[in-house]
Amino acid sequence: MIVALLGLFGVGTADPAQAATGAPTITIQGVEVGGKVQLTATLTGANGQPQADSAVEFSFSTTEFGTPARLVPLGSINTDKTGVAKLTLGGDADHMYLPTTVGPQEFVATFTPTTADAKPISASATVNITVARSAYTPAPDKPLAGVGKGLVVALFAIVAAVWFTMATQVWRVRRATRGVRKPTTSSA
Fold this sequence. Notes:
Elements lengths: L1 H7 L16 E9 L2 E9 L10 E8 L7 E9 L5 E5 L14 E9 L9 E9 L15 H33 L11
Antiparallel strand pairs: 1-2, 2-5, 3-4, 3-6, 6-7
């Protein structure tokens, strides 16, 4: 009962400076410019100040591989001194992914604090994609692909010529081996 009264009057409470500090926050914005998606994540520390030199992982949410939606990693970028990490999809050799469907797509930025008990924090933004490229890229033609079609016609012509030659030879042999009647001489 005494403990309840002490709790009611705030005895033993921590001062605001001793209270648990808040967790870092992350926000993400995305825009499509010229067929490329530009993602910008802003990371703020628990004290409200920009958190520099921290890895932010970018990904996008898709149901392409079944439901529920899964996150597909796009890359990791370190924040600059203002706490901003920018990723341009298709902008460099490390980030070649370009959207394959038009319409709204959800992109996610995730920051994983380095403390042992901290959980990753994420934020998402939806970007309306207007330019997409096909996910299928056909294989280039083989160097001699046209020769194969001509070869089929040539082989068919050769086989037909052999059969025609055999048929004409059989016909000529039959005609040559028919019995020729000798003319009969009459003695009248």
